[in-house]
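Hi V.,

Quick status before I head out on leave. The structure for the redesign project is tokenized and pasted below; the design run finished overnight.
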């Protein structure tokens, strides 16, 4: 026997190992072949290498069973392929030199590697170098299917905190290892923890291979949502975390399950109970109600927003209840004349649950007298449902990712403990905005994160009046009858009156209500007697909700008199500071008499509300026109317009906090309501 033959015999190891050793030590099994790198690569080396910008667009192929790499020598130094046979096709390797670390076809080995010292190099012979198509010709259909699933691996799609673990569509497609234009369906599984969901998927789709991890331990082996691609049935298979399992995020896990259900075409509900429990029917019934209420609208919006050319049906997925018993008969065994599906519908009605969102609900049972479990019936039922395209059509993997991403973006975030309802698997609080009205405590009925799309809060019920927030608003009745809704506010003076004239008119004929379209429509003391209430004559009254983070209600607060006092005080200080004490005492008393309702009385202001400096008798103190608190000179030296408090468009004195935050604190020091202001020239800093 020749030396070459002896060496080849000794090196008869056909396992394909990583040829890069970029991250591993060359002992990891090869998973990809990169044509442009010219090497076989393990999972870790492939990911790290192709994160580099210059290598990112390399063409990679996932290694299948029996894969044989190309001959390295048939490729020239400049990267051009050299053809050595009559057909002009590139040759597959027949062996690999372990010392030179190159793959060689028979022709290149004889021509360049069979002489001198190279003939003594240890080599590995590649078996199965025939084209894969030729090898499969002699296989039966079942064997071909098994081989197609041999390299399938699962990956974490969404973690237990509802965070998607794939970066984008391309990453999703890469981890699935499918073509971008491949049309797929989605199959997911639900059920209680420990009922064998992962085991069921492995045997139904992957011939028993542990694609999804299983474990005999008490702790759940599936945390979050895992996915894998079944190339036989062309479906994305999704494994979920079990119900009733120990977890710190029960509410978020439950909401996550509904997101998975929403993107699924077929749902398998796996139960190992000898009798069907009420929890099964309650879960499916509540899931149906929540799906119709919260998700159909969002899925429709996704098709429009993402420009998808495949309609996402308003009907939810088909459901197969897979029921495995040991000691009891299967459902319907005692009633051969009635289909199990009818008995299931009767159970739903008795529990007042109506699974209207699901396109169909089917029952498939198996009784296991002796293990292992027979999954053939379930597999046939699944294949039959996957062939039905009347409700859900196959779509590209990018469409599946966009739908899941849209639902995750909309319905995300922590769920407060006080909103964790237990009367339903999917209460509204899991999917609606958690903001509540400050006045009546009523919650917003819109979907979560609706503010991202510019949609305002909407209440579930009418609000009630609160003196603290003064949330009563007026609209001009004349404008309303003309089809316009124009808000108006009671003011001490009209917009065309000067402070002096406005104060004189206020003293004589009371406050006014001015409409920007109709002008002054009401004066409270227009006549000596018999003045009517404005609500009965010129305005309509509405009570509006007070939402955190929204603009306050525009109020005049009768501060025309205060504006006049500001001017008088400025003139007095400009003329003389000799009678400072008496002047400030009188000013302080007068200010309290005519101050806006939201101002803190001077007698209660003992320290600066920001720096804490104590006020002495000769120090009165400055009121912030935005929040109404008292401040020293240094903490209230800035100005800006405060029209929301009725101060008009001119800049007035505000504290540093309100100037920086551009906000008002409405009775709650922790609540800052942002309002837009206008930049302008500062008035005299001596305003109080």
């Amino acid at each position: 026997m020749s030396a070459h033959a002896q060496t080849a015999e000794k090196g008869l190891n056909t396992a394909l190992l990583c040829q890069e050793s970029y991250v591993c030590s060359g002992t990891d099994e090869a998973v990809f072949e990169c044509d442009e790198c010219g090497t076989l690569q393990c999972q870790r080396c492939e990911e790290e290498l192709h994160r580099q910008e210059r290598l990112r667009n390399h063409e990679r192929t996932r290694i299948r069973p029996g894969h044989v790499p190309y001959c390295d020598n048939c490729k020239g130094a400049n990267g051009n392929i050299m053809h050595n046979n009559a057909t002009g096709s590139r040759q597959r390797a027949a062996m690999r030199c372990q010392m030179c670390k190159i793959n060689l076809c028979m022709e290149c080995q004889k021509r360049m590697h069979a002489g001198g010292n190279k003939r003594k190099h240890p080599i590995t012979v590649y078996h199965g170098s025939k084209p894969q198509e030729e090898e499969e010709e002699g296989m039966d259909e079942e064997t071909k299917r098994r081989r197609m699933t041999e390299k399938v691996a699962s990956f974490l799609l969404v973690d237990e905190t509802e965070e998607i673990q794939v970066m984008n569509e391309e990453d999703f497609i890469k981890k699935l290892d499918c073509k971008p234009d491949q049309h797929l369906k989605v199959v997911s599984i639900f059920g209680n923890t420990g009922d064998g969901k992962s085991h069921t998927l492995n045997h139904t789709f992957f011939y028993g291979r542990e694609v999804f991890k299983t474990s005999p331990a008490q702790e759940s082996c599936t945390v979050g949502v895992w996915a894998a691609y079944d190339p036989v049935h062309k479906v994305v298979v999704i494994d979920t975390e079990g119900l009733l399992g120990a977890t710190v995020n029960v509410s978020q896990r439950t909401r996550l399950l509904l997101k998975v259900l929403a993107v699924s075409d077929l749902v398998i509900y796996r139960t190992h109970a000898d009798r069907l429990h009420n929890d099964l029917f309650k879960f499916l019934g509540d899931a149906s109600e929540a799906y119709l209420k919260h998700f159909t609208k969002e899925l429709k919006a996704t098709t429009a927003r993402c420009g998808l050319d495949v309609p996402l049906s308003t009907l939810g997925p088909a459901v197969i209840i897979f029921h495995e018993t040991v000691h009891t008969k299967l459902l319907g065994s005692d009633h051969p004349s009635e289909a199990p599906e009818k008995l299931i519908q009767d159970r739903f009605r008795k529990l007042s649950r109506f699974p209207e969102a699901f396109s169909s609900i089917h029952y498939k049972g198996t009784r296991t007298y002796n293990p292992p479990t027979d999954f053939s019936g379930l597999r046939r039922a699944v294949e039959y449902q996957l062939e039905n395209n009347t409700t859900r059509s196959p779509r590209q993997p990018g469409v599946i990712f966009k739908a899941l991403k849209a639902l995750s973006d909309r319905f995300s975030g922590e769920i407060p403990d006080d909103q964790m309802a237990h009367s339903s698997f999917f209460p509204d609080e899991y999917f609606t905005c958690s903001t509540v009205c400050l006045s009546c405590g009523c919650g917003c009925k819109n979907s979560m994160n609706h503010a991202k799309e510019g949609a305002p809060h909407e209440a579930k019920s009418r609000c009630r009046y609160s003196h603290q927030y003064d949330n009563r608003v007026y609209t001009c009745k004349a404008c309303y009858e003309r089809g316009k809704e124009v808000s108006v506010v009671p003011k001490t003076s009209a917009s065309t009156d000067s402070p002096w004239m406005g104060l004189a008119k206020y003293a004589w004929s009371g406050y006014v209500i001015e409409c920007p379209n109709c002008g002054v429509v009401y004066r409270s003391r227009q006549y000596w007697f018999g003045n009517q209430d404005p609500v009965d004559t010129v305005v309509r009254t509405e009570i509006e909700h007070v939402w955190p983070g929204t603009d306050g209600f525009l109020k005049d607060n009768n501060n025309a008199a205060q504006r006049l006092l500001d001017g008088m005080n400025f003139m007095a200080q400009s003329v003389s500071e000799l009678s400072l004490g008496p002047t400030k005492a009188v000013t302080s008393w007068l200010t309290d008499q005519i101050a806006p309702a939201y101002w803190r009385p001077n007698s209660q202001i003992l320290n600066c509300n920001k720096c804490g400096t104590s006020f002495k008798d000769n120090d009165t103190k400055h009121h912030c026109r935005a929040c109404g608190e008292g401040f020293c000179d240094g903490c209230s030296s800035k100005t800006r317009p405060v029209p929301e408090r009725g101060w008009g468009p001119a800049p007035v004195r505000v504290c540093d906090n309100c100037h920086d935050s551009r906000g008002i604190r409405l009775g709650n020091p922790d609540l800052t309501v942002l309002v837009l202001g206008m930049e302008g020239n500062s008035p005299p800093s001596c305003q109080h």
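Above is the designed sequence. Residues 278-305 form the longest helix (28 residues).

G. will cover questions while I'm gone.

Best,
W.
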